[in-house]
Amino acid sequence: MALAQTPARERAADGLDETSRRPPRRGRKTAYQGSARGFIAPGVFLVAVLLYLPLLWTTFLSFTEYNGLGDPDWVGFDNYVEMFEDPAFVGSLLNTLLWVAGTLLVPVGVGLGIALLTWNLPGGIWLRLPFLIPYAISGIGVGVIWSFILSAGGALDQALAVFGITDPPRWLVDAPLNTVVMIFAASWQGVGVNALLFTIGLQSIPKEPLEAARVDGATGLRLFGSILWPMLRPLTAVVVGLSIVASLKTFDIVLSMTKGGPGRASETLALTMYRETFVNSDYGLGSAIAVFLSVVTLIASILYLRQQLSQKHEM
Fold first, then answer.
1. What pLDDT score does 311 carry?
2. In the predicted model, what is the mean pLDDT of residues 165-192?
3. Residue 241 and residue 300 in contact, taking contact as beta carbons nearer than 8 Å
4. Where is the ABC transmembrane type-1 domain (predicted)?
5. What does the alpha-carbon distance between residue 84 and residue 93 come to, in Å, rounded to a whole number?
6. Rama region for 267: left / alpha / beta (φ>0; ψ in -120 to 50; rest)
7. How far does Cα 11 stand from its chain's mean position?
8. Considering only CA atoms, which of 208, 207, 211, 201 is closest in space to residue 231?
9. Which are the contacts of 39, defined by CB distance < 8 A and separation ≥ 6?
10. Which of 23, 83, 186, 313 sits 20 to 30 Å CA-CA off 121?
């Protein structure tokens, strides 16, 4: 009997030895967490160096008077007071709000319309392609193209002269007309990618609800309002959020088309920040505008996302 039980005892003893040699579960979890932290540490360090440190430095400079030479002089909130007392800053803030409204109405609305019109058409991708090509052009390139079209005596004025219109509007000179035409120039660039995103959203909608709605007689606007729009709402939140952020930091198209002129009538907040910082060498005031623009962008994004999430919970 003792001999028969020996192998079992040996196996049990070996099992106990294995268990004793195996690290405890908590220890393994700690080791895995340590390895994970080691992998993400370079990325966190890179983000901290390239994003958070410049943000902290810019915030510090916004409370100082600094021209790029010597040491910054602490002035408290003087830059923020000066910023809001400057009529040019108030004008650039209003122009930025006009950009937000325009880029929500035109590129998002037109992109949605193009997606709806070409969604089920054979060869619809080829109909959307001409709208998508301008997205590959840089903002400066878009500005140069539309400056050639809209400048005095440019392509548009010559085309209007053919129809007998010899005294056209001064597209890039009169405010707020110059801001409006620049919004249309930016929309020419952004419509295609919005149409592509909305098309992807439409293609992901299940066919069963659409077929059931059509059987019930829902077509056109009724089908769009009852089926398509509610199912596109999550994607619409992304498109609108990206448009808001992009419009708040509009810079390159305005710089290349009007340089903020005439005077400073068509400046946006981003261009005002650039002018004060790199043209006037007032790094303190430029940093204050940058901080204000960052805070406005953050607040707008949070409010919009909270609204979308509350609507989602209500549904």
1. 61
2. 91
3. no
4. 93-304
5. 10
6. beta
7. 64
8. 201
9. none
10. 186
